[in-house]
Amino acid sequence: xxxxxxxxxxxxxxxxxxxxxxxxxxxxxxxxxxxxxxxxxxxxxxxxxxxxxxxxxxxxxxxxxxxxxxxxxxxxxxxxxxxxxxxxxxxxxxxxxxxxxxxxxxxxxxxxxxxxxxxxxxxxxxxxxxxxxxxxxxxxxxxxxxxxxxxxxxxxxxxxxxxxxxxxxxxxxxxxxxxxxxxxxxxxxxxxxxxxxxxxxxxxxxxxxxxxxxxxxxxxxxx
Length: 223
Known about the structure:
Blueprint (H helix, E strand, L loop, with lengths): L1 E5 L3 H12 L4 E5 L2 H10 L4 E4 L2 E2 L2 E2 L3 H7 L6 E5 L4 H9 L4 E4 L4 H13 L9 E3 L2 E4 L4 E4 L2 E2 L4 H12 L4 E3 H8 L10 H16 L3 E6 L3 E6 L1
Parallel strand pairs: 1-2, 1-3, 3-6, 6-7
Antiparallel strand pairs: 4-5, 8-9, 9-10, 10-11, 12-14, 13-14
Helix pairs in contact: 6-7, 6-8
């Protein structure tokens, strides 16, 4: 999963990004509304986390601005402005949920799962392919009934391929599933992840094969 975090407190943003990363979530962060709109034009996000007090304006103004672009990405407002009147204002403007600071990451994860279940594309969060069942939000994979322990980035690659099984997935799409836009990606990093992942899947008898589509990307097929 990839989300956009719009938050002006850098320390909080870094801590939250690290915590979400442990749940297999790639986080792009910006402090400014103008940059946020540009990032949504350049990237596809599964959800957006939005603060209200931002350097260039009221965070809630982002919601109608985003909707005017035709995107219906779920938005959760994260803010210290948590009076009933303020929560009503945010929800009436189109936020999918509203969570007051401070909050537990576990509660935020539960709310993320809830808003994602409303999305037609992500309503079934668990992915079944071959002999595997993949749960991206809980960072778990089983082959048959046996857990398969995978490093976080390999699991993110696996989920991205499995969600599009029998279709070629562009390298850029896979890199976006694994890295945020600020990270420097080594030229062979994705290939190394997939090489190790292939071996683990073969050893586990996962019932899938990952094929290299030269110069384009990768394709997962059931065997």
